[in-house]
């Protein structure tokens, strides 16, 4: 995870590893390299500027210049500020006391949305919930079959039907879940290759008519600033409760993970760290900051 960024940052921290006293010039030079490393990792420009300003202010304020191991202190400051940037998140989901709790997952095609529906259902089932999956992605031809297969693997019921629209599928799914005694409904909604009005209208209609209790946006961390831009657009249309970042296991740069919270204000709730169904964890900014700093 984040190998490229880690290599570049450790190079930058070398600048703080000087013999004798560190000068303000050393700090400037070191932070310039940190800045370049973050920009090359595809972190949002405003986020980088704000981040560097904060680290610099603390570095000067905490009298790094006089410290014996200035590099260690800088690493600690950068660590703390990275955690602040990604935001501490409470990944627990609030469940309704009566009737099924409805979770709506949305995202672009290929982001890992259907897989994440399965992973989330598995995680909740292990916590003692009784989930039902609802196949409302009628855009991608294979999505319904994929969800059914996931359901079979996990022994979790899947509501799927043909001949009706996605809103109706969701509504019928919620009714079926209540009837079957399921307490959690996970809606796998349609994705498209790009954001378009038709997709947004479909999702807004589902939100209005089905009234999900939580709306999560699934996005592929490897797409960097494109993931951030799509999260922003989805949040403007739907008021997201959280982001689920997928494919962090294959993300060498970290641009999406480091920008998305600041740019959108939406907390990152979970992270996907592999293709297998057990590879979903609550988002942990300390773990990420730790792996970035090596
Ligand atoms: P959808 O079109 O958004 O429903 O995407 P899918 O759920 O079909 O996932 C697209 C691809 O991404 C599949 O090959 C998944 O196995 C893969 N995928 C999903 N989540 C992760 C993840 O966290 N890590 C990795 N490495 N692959 C993932």
TrEMBL record:
Residues 267-280 form the SRP54-type proteins GTP-binding domain. GTP binds at residues 107-114, 188-192, 246-249. One of its GO terms (cellular component) is signal recognition particle. Its EC number is 3.6.5.4. It is found in: Cytoplasm. The keyword Membrane does not apply. It catalyses: GTP + H2O = GDP + phosphate + H(+). It is an enzyme of class 3 (hydrolase). GO terms for molecular function: 7S RNA binding; GTP binding; GTPase activity. Composed of three domains: the N-terminal N domain, which is responsible for interactions with the ribosome, the central G domain, which binds GTP, and the C-terminal M domain, which binds the RNA and the signal sequence of the RNC. This is Signal recognition particle protein. It comes from Isosphaera pallida (strain ATCC 43644 / DSM 9630 / IS1B). The lineage of its organism: Bacteria, Pseudomonadati, Planctomycetota, Planctomycetia, Isosphaerales. The chain holds residues 1 to 294 of 495 of the full protein.
């Amino acid at each position: 995870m984040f190998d490229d960024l880690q290599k570049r940052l450790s190079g930058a921290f070398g600048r703080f590893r000087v013999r004798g006293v560190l000068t303000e010039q050393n700090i400037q030079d070191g932070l310039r390299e940190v800045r370049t490393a973050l920009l090359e990792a595809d972190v949002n420009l405003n986020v980088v500027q704000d981040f560097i300003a904060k680290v610099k202010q603390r570095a000067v304020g905490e009298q790094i210049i006089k410290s014996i191991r200035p590099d260690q202190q800088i690493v600690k400051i950068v660590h703390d500020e990275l955690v602040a940037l990604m935001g501490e998140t409470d990944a627990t989901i609030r469940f309704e006391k009566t009737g099924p709790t409805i979770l709506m997952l949305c995202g672009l095609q290929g982001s890992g949305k259907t897989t994440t529906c399965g992973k989330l259902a598995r995680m909740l089932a292990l916590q003692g919930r009784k989930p039902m999956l609802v196949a409302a992605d009628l855009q991608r031809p294979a999505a319904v079959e994929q969800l059914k297969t996931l359901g079979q693997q996990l022994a979790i019921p899947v509501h799927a039907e043909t001949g009706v629209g996605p809103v109706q599928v969701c509504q019928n799914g919620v009714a079926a879940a209540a009837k079957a005694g399921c307490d959690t409904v996970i809606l796998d909604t349609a994705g498209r290759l790009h954001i378009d009005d038709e997709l947004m209208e479909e999702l807004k209609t589902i939100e209005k008519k089905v009234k999900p209790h939580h709306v999560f946006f699934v996005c592929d961390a490897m797409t960097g600033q494109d993931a951030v831009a799509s999260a922003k657009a989805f949040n403007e249309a739907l008021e997201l409760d959280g982001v689920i970042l997928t494919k962090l296991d294959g993300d060498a740069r970290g641009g999406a993970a480091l920008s998305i919270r600041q740019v959108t204000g939406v907390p990152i709730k979970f992270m996907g760290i592999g293709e297998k169904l057990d590879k979903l964890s609550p988002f942990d900014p300390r773990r990420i900051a730790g792996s970035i700093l090596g």
